[in-house]
Design a protein that fits this description.
alpha+beta; two-stranded antiparallel sheet; about 40% strand
């Protein structure tokens, strides 16, 4: 029985799609209303920003938060954070021998291809104190080559998954 519980815990932890951090000692029950806003670091409102805002407005009520324009206690900010992933594209191997010995060799990738990917971040900022009280980052990445439909689904799925972990237990 213990083995089954251990295997179940490993499977569930391996399926995690986000990392959550929050301010210790925060009473999350005081937050009833939230406003969704654009990340100030973005110069324009991209299509993905609009997708993130729509997904937040859709899924925040499922966590007990009313989306409001005024009288909100929280500001919710979602953003995509770009990073590069490098993939080696060439591995060499060989073997050789002499009179008394035999050798096998393997070389590391000589070159790599850069792929841009994006991770989703969501922050809950207490309006009164201007401090982040809850933050989640996706562990899964969105590839730069995703089309419109795949981006919509990825953002909606990840926002829903991340918000399922609010409020912290």
């Amino acid at each position: 029985m213990r083995l089954m519980l251990l295997l179940a815990a490993i499977c569930v932890s391996g399926c995690a799609t986000s990392v959550v951090d929050y301010k210790s000692g925060t009473d999350f029950s005081i937050y009833q209303q939230a406003s969704v806003r654009k990340d100030d670091s973005q110069k324009d409102t991209s299509i993905d920003t609009v997708r993130i805002q729509a997904a937040l407005k859709k899924h925040l009520p499922e966590q007990g938060l009313t989306v409001a324009m005024s009288d909100a206690q929280l500001e919710v900010v979602g953003r995509l954070v770009e990073y590069s992933r490098y993939e080696g594209n060439q591995v060499s191997w060989g073997f050789g021998g002499a009179r008394d010995s035999l050798a096998i060799g393997l070389s590391a990738p000589i070159s790599a291809d850069e792929r841009k990917q994006y991770r989703l971040e969501i922050e809950f900022v207490d309006i009164a104190t201007k401090q982040v009280v809850w933050k989640a980052k996706s562990t899964q990445a969105m590839d730069e080559n995703y089309g419109a439909e795949k981006r919509d689904k990825w953002i909606d799925k990840n926002v829903a998954s991340m918000l399922m972990r609010y409020p912290p237990k």
